[in-house]
């Protein structure tokens, strides 16, 4: 049977950008024989409006069964006053938690045509293609004890950085597996100079590396890593790091490449019985209420998220390359949504015109 793909468009610009992904999926079905069993469901505010909860148990069960989940975005001002447990974001958090998605993949890829959008000089970022692997389910955001406690005559706020060997090992394995499909280099970042969790992290990553002799492993203190990311980002291929450092380093890397409308992501979990990892693909951006409903959203982040699904869930790196090359081509030809405008005299494309332009480039590929 065909691999299954669960689509959760969500709120705001989510459904708008997802409509363009549907065109791309249809193209691959019609032209490259890639058939998926696609189903669509509600998440976030849209699910709350229909069911009174940001993710129904039925949708959660479908996500657990799917070979891959592709999500648009959740949230919006309409839901700001809802109870914490009913907020749209809780739907997304429930997916991540119950699917146990421990490995968060954030590529920072600079399309040459957009190098001017980088916060850095063009020659530092042109051709940049790195991947940050952030451990997503443990570390200081989850470790116990945590809380605000009385201590003498004042209060103390406590969070605990805590990593087990198995948590480090599975994150490391996912980074090495990824590196095998890319430039075969992993740089692991922690602070082993001042943190015991960092010492253990370095030790376990080094041990797992023995299973991947083809991959070159290096270690770097995370503060130096932040500096190197801005100084000379092209020295990296895959960066492996923990939840806290990954949060910061991936936001930093994102700005190397320019618009939020261009950034995809993947969150992977343990392999299912068919060998595919549990997987959720989503653009980094949110529901963009300021432009929702106007046909202005850039669909590329969501389309690139589908390219990641082709590569990491459906083992089809060649078709993922084809899709990324089509995007590279339309950008080189000057196609721009409003968020990518800088040059004068360029008329922005609408969301659906950008989708159609990419389909046309696929037809020429
Ligand atoms: P946002 O990412 O939605 O928007 C930030 C800015 O970037 C806005 O000016 C927006 O117009 C622009 N932008 C974002 N994506 C774009 C695209 N594809 N094309 C063109 N321009 C784009 O972040 P914001 O404004 O902080 O949050 C808005 C809502 O989204 C909130 O409810 C927030 O909670 C939610 N959110 C959801 C996320 C998710 O679903 N994963 C992630 C971040 C925020
Ligand atoms: Mg962050």
From TrEMBL:
Binding positions (NAD(+)): 76-89, 286-298
Family annotation (InterPro entries): IsoCit/isopropylmalate_DH_CS, IsoPropMal-DH-like_dom, Isopropylmalate_DH
One BP term from GO: L-leucine biosynthetic process
Pathway where it operates: Amino-acid biosynthesis; L-leucine biosynthesis; L-leucine from 3-methyl-2-oxobutanoate: step 3/4
Isopropylmalate dehydrogenase-like domain sequence ranges: 4-358
GO cellular component, one term: cytosol
GO molecular function, one term: NAD binding
Required cofactor names: Mn(2+); Mg(2+)
Binding site for substrate: 96, 106, 134, 223
Keyword Cell membrane in annotation: no
Family, per entry: Belongs to the isocitrate and isopropylmalate dehydrogenases family. LeuB type 1 subfamily.
Subunit text: Homodimer.
HAMAP family xrefs: LeuB_type1
Function noted in UniProt: Catalyzes the oxidation of 3-carboxy-2-hydroxy-4-methylpentanoate (3-isopropylmalate) to 3-carboxy-4-methyl-2-oxopentanoate. The product decarboxylates to 4-methyl-2 oxopentanoate.
Listed name of the protein: 3-isopropylmalate dehydrogenase
Species annotation: Falsiruegeria mediterranea M17
Origin organism lineage: Bacteria, Pseudomonadati, Pseudomonadota, Alphaproteobacteria, Rhodobacterales
Gene name in the database record: leuB_1
């Amino acid at each position: 049977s065909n691999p299954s793909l669960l689509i959760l468009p969500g709120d705001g610009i989510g459904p708008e950008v997802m409509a363009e992904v549907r065109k791309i999926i249809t193209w691959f079905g019609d032209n490259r024989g890639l058939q998926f069993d696609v189903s669509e469901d509600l998440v976030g505010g849209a699910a709350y409006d229909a069911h009174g909860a940001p993710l129904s148990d039925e949708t959660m069960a479908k996500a657990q069964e799917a070979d891959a989940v592709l999500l648009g975005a959740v949230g919006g001002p309409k839901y700001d006053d809802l109870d914490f447990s009913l907020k749209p974001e809780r739907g997304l958090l429930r997916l991540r938690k119950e699917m146990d998605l421990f490995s968060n993949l954030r590529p920072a890829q600079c399309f040459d045509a957009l190098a001017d959008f980088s916060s850095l000089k063009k020659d530092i970022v042109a051709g940049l293609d790195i991947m940050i692997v952030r451990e997503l389910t443990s570390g200081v955001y989850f470790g116990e004890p945590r809380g605000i406690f009385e201590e003498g005559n004042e209060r103390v706020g406590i969070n605990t950085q805590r990593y087990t060997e198995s948590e480090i090992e599975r994150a490391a394995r996912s980074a090495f597996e990824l590196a095998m499909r890319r430039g075969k280099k992993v740089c692991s970042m922690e602070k082993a100079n001042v943190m015991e969790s960092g010492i253990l992290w370095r030790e376990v990553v080094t041990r797992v590396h023995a299973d991947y002799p083809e991959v070159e492993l290096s270690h770097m203190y995370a503060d130096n890593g932040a500096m190197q990311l801005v100084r000379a980002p092209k020295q990296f291929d895959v960066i492996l790091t923990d939840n806290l450092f990954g949060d910061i380093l991936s936001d930093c890397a994102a700005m190397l490449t320019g618009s939020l409308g261009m950034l995809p992501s993947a969150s992977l979990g343990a392999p299912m019985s068919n060998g595919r990892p549990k997987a959720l693909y989503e653009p980094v951006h949110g529901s963009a209420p300021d432009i929702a409903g106007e046909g202005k959203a850039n669909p590329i982040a969501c389309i690139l998220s589908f390219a990641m699904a082709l590569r990491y869930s459906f083992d089809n790196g060649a078709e993922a390359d084809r899709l990324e090359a089509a995007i590279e081509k339309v950008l080189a030809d000057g196609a721009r949504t409003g968020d990518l405008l800088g040059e004068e005299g360029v008329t922005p494309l609408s969301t659906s015109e950008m989708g159609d332009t990419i389909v046309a480039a696929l037809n020429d590929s």
